[in-house]
Write a structure and sequence with these properties.
With 473 residues, this protein is mostly helical. The chain has 17 helices and no strands. The radius of gyration is 21 Å and the shape is globular.
Length: 473
């Protein structure tokens, strides 16, 4: 059995060309993963009509992806550290492409949901390894800037997701939102294996008990959350898995204290920046994913837009996420993460409250266009700062584990956010009419604002950090 006593990351002093290959490949892979979390939003109405899906099944087309994604993230990060981040990253991209093919040819909603589960599994082996490869390739003084570019490319998916989904649904048919992933996935796997150097983490063995406990705990919590609105939040079918999941996560923490090779060293949480950054991304993605889940539907169900028009309507929200992260990533090194997180999530919370006040079936689109831009700007400002807080607060050998924790918190937050916003929607409205939908949407927007405010509060706990900017990404 091969053993290692030290990590072998991509050399930080490798030339700019080598670093750019890492940045481009990981960024495009991230864009593909985020795109599929969002592109379904504008296709939900068409899927409901074409496959006869219920509201609960529509929720599952989103949450099935997030469920397997969240459960396998820590496993993926550990596997990458052990067997090679590049190798596991390429395997994840390949699985993602194959699962997209299943979604594209799905004859019914059950097969579509199964394909989404496999897509989430592939995404779990892409996202944390993309961040780990990026973190290993760039030295600390260049990392925040690189993360800004990475977040900006991911932001392109936020802009393109609803627009591409709407254009494809209206111009061709909804399965083509999945077909597009197949050639992109093949190309990414090739470039990963031929243009990126291999790197590993420091541990010579997998923490199998830790993997089992973390996976079981994440599964129980997320399963309970996504079942809450259909089974009832006080039912045994919901409380049982959540309690069991929390117990498993507690056992995971206890095991990590004495494991010889812990998959998530608990000493990382002694860093206030690491702990607060992970809390921020949980609430950031809970608020953002829940908001886009309903916003695309509000434009169609509430305002009567078609899929393409809905995608165009969300474009101002998404376009900000292409531009702002690059600027924020460059300035984080100068001013630290805290101001970008607090101001960003505070702006998003204000925008959601603004939308909640004006969202009516008779509302003109331009009434919500300004708060959409404010919301997108805030979300985009926060993301690279949260990534920087987590990934620059750990030693290089812990980059893989830190990226796994960060990605896990993001996906758990997404599942939590969609579930909680759906609960708020269901209490106040329904799909019975545009008026009923608008009432539910307003309640969901308020919930999104509260989640963002909690994330801003967590961000205020990050200590100030000043890092001099230098070098060429």
């Amino acid at each position: 059995m091969r053993t290692r006593t030290s990590p072998t990351p991509v050399a930080p002093d490798a030339g700019p060309a080598r670093r750019r290959w890492v940045l481009v490949t990981t960024s495009v892979a991230s864009m593909m993963v985020v795109l599929d979390a969002l592109v379904v939003a504008t296709a939900l109405t068409a899927i409901r009509s074409d496959l006869g899906a219920s509201v609960a099944e529509l929720e599952w087309t989103v949450n099935a992806y997030g469920l397997s994604f969240a459960v396998l993230l820590m496993t993926a990060a550990a596997a990458g550290d052990r067997w090679g981040r590049r190798r596991v990253f390429a395997a994840g991209v390949t699985l993602f492409a194959a699962a997209s093919l299943i979604c594209a040819i799905a004859p019914g909603v059950e097969v579509l949901i199964a394909g989404r589960v496999l897509q989430g599994a592939g995404a779990a082996f892409v996202m944390p390894l993309a961040l780990a490869l990026l973190g290993a390739a760039f030295p600390a003084e260049l990392r925040a800037k690189a993360l800004g570019v990475f977040a900006s490319v991911s932001g392109l998916a936020v802009a393109l997701g609803p627009l591409l989904g709407g254009a494809v649904v209206e111009g061709i048919s909804w399965p083509w939102i999945f077909w597009i992933n197949v050639p992109i996935g093949v190309a990414l796997a090739y470039f990963a294996l031929t243009r990126i150097e291999e790197s590993h983490g420091p541990d010579p063995a997998l923490d199998v008990p830790g993997l089992v406990l973390a996976g079981a705990g994440s599964f129980g919590v997320v399963w309970g959350l996504v079942q809450g609105n259909s089974a009832g939040w006080t039912s045994l079918a919901v409380l049982g898995p959540i309690v069991a999941g929390l117990v498993a996560l507690g056992a995971f923490v206890a095991w990590q204290r004495r494991a010889a090779h812990p998959m998530l060293p608990l000493h990382l949480f002694r860093s206030r920046r690491f702990a607060a950054g992970n809390a921020v991304i949980f609430f950031h993605w809970a608020s953002a994913l829940g908001a886009v889940f309903f916003m695309a539907q509000f434009l169609q169900e509430g305002l009567g837009f078609g899929p393409l028009a809905a995608g165009l309507g969300l474009a101002p929200w998404g376009l900000t996420t292409m531009v702002v992260p690059q600027l924020a990533g460059r300035l984080v090194g100068r001013f630290g993460e805290r101001p970008f997180i607090v101001l960003g999530l505070g702006s998003h919370a204000l925008a959601m409250l603004w939308i909640a006040l004006v969202a009516e079936p008779a509302t003109g689109y331009w009434v919500i266009a300004v708060p959409l831009v404010l919301s997108g700007t805030g979300i985009a400002m926060c993301l690279p700062a949260a990534q920087s807080a987590v990934l620059t607060s750990v030693a290089p050998q812990f980059i893989g584990k830190a990226s796994g924790a960060f990605s896990s918190m993001r996906q758990l937050g997404g599942a939590f956010g969609v579930a909680i916003l759906v609960a708020g929607f269901s209490l106040a409205g329904s799909y019975a009419s545009s008026t009923a939908f608008s009432a539910g949407f307003r309640a969901a927007a308020v919930v999104s604002a509260v989640l963002a405010a909690v994330g801003a509060l967590a961000g205020s706990l990050i200590p100030r950090r000043v890092v001099k900017e230098s070098g060429d990404v």
